[in-house]
Design goal:
The chain is α/β, with parallel strands linked by helices and 382 residues long. It has 2 domains: 255 residues, Aldolase class I (TIM Barrel); 73 residues, Arc Repressor Mutant, subunit A (Orthogonal Bundle), CATH 1.10.10. It is globular and about 55 Å long.
Length: 382
Amino acid sequence: MAGIYFHIPYCRKACHYCDFHFSVNQKNKGELMQSMIEELRIQRNFFSVLDKSTPIETIYFGGGTPSLSSKKELSDLIETVYTIFPVSNNPEITIECNPDDLSSDYCNDLFALGFNRASIGIQSFDDHFLSVLNRSHNAQKAFESIDNIVHAGINNVSIDLMYGLPEQSNDHWLKQLAQVRDLPIQHLSCYNLTIESNTVFGKRVKQKLMQEPDDEVAGKQFEQLMEWADENSFEHYEISNLAKAGFQSQHNSAYWLNKPYLGIGPSAHSYNTVHRFHNFSSNARYVQQLNNKQQWYEIEELDHADKVNDYLLTSLRANWGIDLNYVEDTYGAKEKDRILTILKTIDHEHYHISSDAKVTLSKKGKLWSDRIALEIFLDHEY
């Protein structure tokens, strides 16, 4: 299994919390999109370290705001993938969207192009908090976008919601989740607001114009999310992701299952099971390097500790957990013993070891997932 990710680095406006690579200036967008097609062509042998017949099973458009792309721009990229790579009979093809882009006509175009999954960045159903976040849509547009995408025939719909927002009460968060229950949504990605230094929120915190999010409040809202998921038939299959049965994100799950993927576009990441690659996070430099047939990415060779830690972090966050037998077979018995020794020092209420040697987090442990991962990480000097 392999996947392709497109990073479309454009947005209408800058959200106050966002630290991703993007630009609000679309002046040279056409040239950049052509460079992405050129990158695809150059990378036709990217998966050669694997079986050359390995099919592309997922295609994912992220950003930025991919829904700012025209039908032709999206079509050109998809057609190039099909021309260059073997593609499975029914690939999952996802596009991240802003609600205000999802007119009926645009949704129909997406369906015609073969998109069968949409991830809509709603963040909140409350106009006040949408304004605080500097989102470009309002609550009415949020509801309309879901209606339009479903009526177009795309029935695998995911939405993003944020919690831990400034002055957001626990009751308010529960009301946001209550909205989901009555909508045709199969997947939910929920993110705790984090303050990044180079964002508007980061600058406000530094200037003491805004307080850091309250960890205790955010923790309570995460617990409410887990309770809500149990009550509404959503499987909490990864720390930030919940889905109804059969609707887990295949593309993102492949990341967590250590599958290879090719990232196209400025700031996109790639992984071929041997190396990690990171495209330059500059639109102009990315285009220039490709035009000049020069390297447009940085490469990182993974050592033993990198591979172990990548596996531990991603597996621990997911409901399938760390497979200690896989650890032993892949990384050695010494590594399995090291993990078991460290786990004995961690509160047993935070995790469970099954009879088939899988380590999974309890609900309480999910609150401390990153900290627990750090505890069991393999030091590079080990």
